[in-house]
Every structure is written in structure tokens, then in C-alpha cells.
Amino acid sequence: MSSATAGTQGRIVVVGSLNADLTIYCERLPLPGETVHGNGFVVNPGGKSANQAVAASLLGGAVSLVGAVGDDSNGKMLLSSTAGAGVHVGDVRTAPTETGVAVIAVDAHGENNIIISAGANGTLSPADVTAAAETFHGAAVVCLCLEVSLDTVEAAALAGRDAGATVLLNLSPYAEIPQQLADLTDVLLVNAHEASQFLGGAAISGSDADAGDWDTVRLRFAERGLQRVLVTLGAHGSVVLDSLAPTGQQLVQIAPVKVDAVDTTGAGDAFTGAVAARLADGASLADAAAFASIAAALATTRKGTQAAYPDENDVKRVLTSGAV
User: Which of 223, 218, 225, 255 is nearest to 238 (CA)?
Assistant: First the structure.
């Protein structure tokens, strides 16, 4: 477990995916085999890792992104938008293939379903992590998700550990991970569904779970080698499970931030990027989660992903006033 970020501003390295988001808005999501009418279509920059990098940068982080795009207009759009948000993109490789895409439907309540096609993201490999070795030097946080190969994620986690960084793994889209990757992970970030899958199907709910239930969940994660875990619960807030904290501080429940959601796409990435930004600034895990809850809630109040993300002043304004 690294203490490299304690009390110091540090750099964030995000390794993973960049996608063009092809989003259509509709009154309700279609049932299997059903066609529904849409009421708007946009192409926006996205991809979990690009989203997380942009969110962290807008919230004050110094961020570098390692990834791959295709040699096409979507790739150019992603490089331009990500760099425009202040993210260093010198380690984003252009591959001789199409850029990854996500096809997204968003209903009138802001809920969505998403299908992704890896494209250039599927070419990202441990060799790209090796090529970006200098970028990892002195990093405070390495931020990872599962939209690229597990071999690449594990190589990046190892590079982060070797650099003395805090390795933050967002277990999304869900996949079983090898124990080696769990052992390299300092902070695991999951939603309730992902947590249930990881722990073998045990139901996890934010609406009726009490402290005793959550302590059992904490111990089960610890048995799998994961000592510090953030569980996001949507409208029910989030829970910090920190087995390395002093007794009495190992469980912290973060209250939800009430907003009128327009589009929930990318809210989880906003949360992850915000956690990375705060950890790189030396915040505690609980403080990072509280800050991230506001950032994610604000991100749902506008359409799109990166274009909807708040900046540091937006979040601090809510922290100060208590009102969204």
C-alpha cells in the first residue's frame, strides 16, 4: 500500500479506453425485439478511461492518458477533446484500425443501456505500458478499468505499484480478475451489482443494509485481498469499506446527493475520476468519496458524458452551500 500521495499534489496516470459515444435519446428503452422512436442523436467523446481522465483533470488533477484510437475522424475528435480538457495525450497511440465506439440509448429518466465495440482499444497491450514507462515515474495514482485487456490492466497496475502510486481499479465492465491483479489493487471501486458478482452473487443493497451487513461485506472483500473498497449505490449514495483504517473508522456511509437526473451516462466515470483527483491531492478515502458523490451527481444534470462533467469550483460550491 502506497503512502506516496499523503499530503502532496501528485500526477494521475489513466490507462485504458477511448470511445466515440453514439447516443440516441428516447422516451423509454426498447424491450428485446422492439423498436422505439428516438428524439435526438449525438456523437460525443467517451470511453471509460477518457471520461475518467477528463473528470480528474477538470477537478484539478494533473492527468496523463495511455490508450489507443483509430486513424479516423472519431480518433481525431477524441484526441482533441481530451487534450482540450487539459489531459496529456502523448501516450495515446494511433492504431491502423477504427476507433472504439459505444452505442448508447438514454431514456426520459436519464437511464441508459450501452453496447461497446473495442476497435483500437483492443490493440492496447502491455507493450504500450512499457513504452509509457516514464509517464508512470512519480505518479501518485494509477487509474484503471476493464474496457481493455486484463493483461494490459495488470501490466499497468504493476507499473503503478513499482512507481509507488496508489492503484485505483474500477471493476467495470465487470469481469473476473486474477488474484495477481487484486493483490496489486490499493483501492477497488465497484457498484452494488459488481460487488455482488465479485463476492459470488450475494445481494448488496444500499436501501436496507445496516452497518453489520456492510462490515460483513468489508471482511469478505478483505478475504479476497482487497482492503480498501468503494461501493457506489446510485440514489443511495456510497459506502467506504477500509480495513486498513483504525477501528471505528472502517465503515463510512456517504449520503446521496439529490438531483434531477437528465442523463446518467458516464456518472460512474465522473465518480472514479473525482476519487483519483482527491487521492492524488492527499485526501482520505472517505473525503474522496464524498467529493466524488457530488461530482457524479452534478454530471447527471446535463446530457452527455465529458461535456456534462463539473469542474472543481462547481463541486466546492456544493460542498460550501450544501445545495446543488
Answer: 255
